[in-house]
Please model this.
Amino acid sequence: MKTLDKKTSLFFILSGIFITNAIVAEIVGGKIFSLEGTLGISPMQFSLMGEFWDFNLTAGVILWPVVFITTDIINEYFGKEGVRKISYFTVILILYVFLMIFLITKLTPASFWLDANNTDSEGNFLNIHDAFNKIFLQGLWIIAGSVVAFILGQLLDAYIFHKLRAITGSKRLWLRATGSTLVSQFIDSFVVLIIAFYISGKLSLGAVISIGIVNYLYKFVIAMAITPFLYVAHNVIDRYLGKTLAHEMMDTAAAESKTFL
Model:
C-alpha cells in the first residue's frame, strides 16, 4: 500500500472511531447510572461539601476512554492540527444529530405503533411516544454545555500533549497522554455541569462541584488504567505504517505543532 494511502486510511479509521464514540456518548449521556449498583456493591454515601453522594455517573463516560485513546493517537501521528480538524467536525456532526433528533420527535406517531408498545415489561401503561422523546431529547443547556466542554477539552488536550512532547521528545508517551487527559478532563468535567445545571439554575454551585469531582475521579482512574492500551494501539499502528513512516509522521506532527504552542 502506498505511503499516502496508509496515512489517509489511518486518519479515516481514527476519525471514524473518534466520531462514533463521541456522538454515541452524547446521545446516551442522558442516562445516569449507579456504579455501585452495576458492580453489585452497597452505595458508598460519602460526604462532600455538606451533601451525601454515591458514584452516580452519566452513561457517556463508558465511551470516553476510547475517545481519550483516539485523541492521543491522533495527537501523536497528526499533531494538534489533526485534533482540531476532527474536533470541529465532530461538534458540527453532534449538533446535526441533535437537530435531526429534535425534528424526529416532532413527527406524529402512528396509532398502531402506540398501541403495539402501550405497556412496559411489567404490564404498566406506557406512552411510547413520550418515552421516546424523553430518552432522546435533552435540554438546550445540556447540549450547549456538552458541546462547549467537548471542544474546550479537546483543544486543551492537544495543547498540553504537545507542550509535554516538546519537553519529553519521543519518549514517555504515557506522561504526555495521561497528563493531557487529566488536565483537559478536569476542565471538561466542570464546564458541562456549570453551563448545563448551574447557569440554568437547576443545581446549586455546591452540588455542581460535588458531581464534577465524582465524575473527574472516575475519569482520573480510567485515564491511568487505559495507558497500557495506548501502547498497544501505538505498536499496532507502527507495524501498520512501518517504523520509518511512523517516525516521520510523529516528527512532522511534533514540528508542526510547535507553531501553535
